[in-house]
Amino acid sequence: MANSDSYAVSNVIEFEVVPADKKWARQKLNETITALAKVNGDRNAACTALRYLGTTAAVTEMVKRFRGDDKKCEWEYKFGLIGSPHRNFVISEMETAISLREQAVTSHFISTLALLQFTKRALVFHRTPRTRVRNGSSNGGRKMINAEVFMTSCVYSICGNW
């Protein structure tokens, strides 16, 4: 059993979060596209950079490249699209891409789009419990859970991959 008088201390770190510089983001996107075009380039670093860039231009590039033919980057593109701060734009770009002749549409592409559409439409999943809330108060007979958390855990754990 640990001594109650001992505790861990860490250094204090302070930082300031500033808005992204659009010029830097364009430059990083261009560097990433160039790296992905090289046959012997560092593809892992490039697709990871694209995943975390967080711009609509990066979304467009990930959708274009999310074709199932690049096993090193496939998951980076998938989770970059899922985690994008531009969810509505991602959905729109993916829906548009389906009709393009040059866009390969894989099961990963469809399952990612389905997950994004589901979480957009079902922000709250309602379930009716049989019992009242523990403290004796009632919440109208309904419990609410976050549907995105529910479906993400379902899709990637107990329910298997769509």
Main features:
single chain; 162 residues; mainly alpha; two-stranded antiparallel sheet; 7 helices; 52% helix; 5% strand
Spatially, the strands of the biggest sheet line up as: 1-2
Distance between the termini: 45 Å
Q: Mean pLDDT, as a whole number?
A: 80
Which parts are unreliable, with pLDDT below 50 for 5 consecutive residues or more?
124-137, 153-162
Please count the helical segments: 7
The 3D shape can be described as: globular
Work out the radius of gyration. Answer: 21 Å
Helix content class: 40-55%
Secondary-structure element series: HHHHHHEEH
Count of extended strands: 2
Largest sheet: 2 strands, antiparallel
Structural class of the secondary elements? mainly alpha
Tell me briefly what this model is.
The chain is mainly alpha-helical and about 160 residues long.
Task: Provide a descriptive summary of the structure in words.
This protein is 52% helix and 5% strand. With 162 residues, the protein is mainly alpha-helical. It has a domain at 22-121. The protein has a two-stranded antiparallel sheet. Helix 1 runs antiparallel to helix 2 and helix 5 (87-98) crosses helix 6. The longest helix is centred in the first third of the chain and has 16 residues, at 22-37. It is globular.
